[in-house]
Predict the 3D structure of the following.
Amino acid sequence: MISAIYQFALTTGANRVVRGARIEHVCGDPGLGPDKDYAYGMRIVTTALEAIATPVTGPTLFDPLASGSAAEPAHVC
Amino acid sequence: MSAALRVVHYLNQFFAGIGGEEHAHVGVSVRDGAIGPGRALQNVLGETATITATIVCGDNFASERPDEAAEAVSAHLRRVAPHVVVAGPAFGSGRYGLACGRVCLAAKALGIPAVTAMEPDNPGAVSFRKQVVIVPTGESSTSMAPALEHLARLALTLGRGEPLGPAEVAGYLPQGNRRVWDRGRPGYQRALDMLLAKLHDRPFVTEVPYNAPEKIVPAAPVRDLTRATIAMVTTGGLVRKGNPDHQVSASATRYHRHSVRELESLTPEGWEAYHAGYFNHIVNRNPNYILPLSFLRDLEGKGRIGGVHEWIYALPGVSTPVAVATRLGEGIARDLSAAGVDGCLLVAT
């Protein structure tokens, strides 16, 4: 599950939770401009794909901004 | 004793005295009167009710051929036409608990009130507690005596056609129903009493019990993303532009699925958000924020995923009660599972 209110998703029992950008734009951030917006959205989606390919035993947070992926880190203003 | 209520009792092969696991395959049969724990139940029921027959079925038969068993039980119930059916107690026994639940459902379908008893975590209680009156018991038959007393009390009430009180008062597992009920004292007094009790470390009973969220066993990970078909679901209120399906913006009771087979991305010309719980305008300019089709097509083109599932699912996830949301989620999950989807991304606003 990709959600900006990820804490709520975790406490209600979602097992693979990906930290989204904001409620109004979960997969990306228009404030970053088109290129970085797309890169950030892609980072969120690829983190979600990594999440569903990762074994978990209970509610687990996958944070696109914290992961050590090779993609350029997006900065949230 | 023409005024006595007629009770039919249901037992498994073990409590009926046929035998243990080696006899769990026996089919449905009927005995006259009370047998096994039914005799003790009869004692507690007293003279106002008589166990006229006992229906017996092996636990394996009941769980492996549930429809056949239910049909046979229904046929006997139609013939005996009791005022009330009592099943069990099943205690911690899973197959027996499920069988007792199904027997009560079969009785209910015939307009006959029914009650059973089992341990609250018994799969039968987990499956049927909302439809069936279930008295909580301990894990084993050491709690037989209090269970039978409790069963008898509720059976008499139901058999007379009288309504049961609230679950917390009458002592059965809560069924999730809300009814108007006069507690006698206004809410502010009860709330202040509870607060005082809490501050003074005295016991109190909440009127708004906390329902812990259901624990879901995590799905096994996708083994190979490059060969996986990935589906997308959103609770962000995605609709086709102009909302031609007339989806609501809150308290949804249905979801819609749409084909994206021909689409590379969700455009503002074709899609928008209709959701009462957040500011929709940003998504209306780029609907991929709540359903990341453009990203998955990109990854599909690069071979990072096997493919994008043709159907997307959408509803506004706001103000829908958990029970309704559960039903909707199960419907979507059933579809995706039947379609052979390997993984799913759910975007929640």
Observations:
- Confidence is low (pLDDT under 50) at residues 69-77 of chain A.
- The CA atoms of residues 18 and 62 of chain A lie 5 Å apart.
